[in-house]
# Entry
Amino acid sequence: GLARATGGSARVFGHNVESDYRQARDKIGLAPQEFNVDRFFPIREVLEHKAGYHGVPDSTAQDRAESVLKRVGIYDKRNTRFDWLSGGMKRRFMLARALITDPDLLILDEPTAGVDVQLRHDLWETIIDLNEQGTTILLTTHYIEEAERLCDEVAILDAGQVVDVASPSTLINRGTDDIVVQLRAKPAAIPDFTNINSRVTETVLEGRRLTVTATRGGLVAPEVVRRLDEQGHEIIDLEIKRTSLEEIFVSMTRETRSDSPEASIQ
# Structure
């Protein structure tokens, strides 16, 4: 490692990172955000060298290099130097290098930073496929959509501190949804939703458009429809606008900063 441990211990799939460091490292594949690659060899050779560092025999290393390059879609560039690859291909190569040791744990630091939308979705599909085949993936990202799409568990960090850890759906359910109802005729007053549900936080009427804000809007909507029908209002359209993980992220980090002494000074 880059620093000696001052206390405690860490294990990777049962292997102590100090006494069994070779076995521990063989279990981990890392694709950093920065391009720390030998630029003077064809990318196929770079992968073979990487496999060799981990004790993979030459013949096996060659087969693995071909396999991972095909997997990430740049096999036709196998004899090309890293510097001559496009930005998107460089990202693909970083993933290929992380996979060359067939790791059980894959650490991806901003794996789609700076790539176009199509490549981002291609990389997502590759990551999903790896996970479904049993690879544990630890991913850091600033793309909230990426976390929502890929992750079973999300840790929200702000200023180096963990704010919360939960599944994307659990985090989203903590926010509020808007149940937007278009009525046939404009009500004379805001429809009565007294005691409809403790989840309802606000009701706004704008002409024939009624917006009911509530937590877990999908559970509240049927009761809203029933209550409007009882009061004689005809519904011509209904839409539930769910809160997004990005909105939850902004809300939680804003609350954290407002509670900190530094935030209050600024």
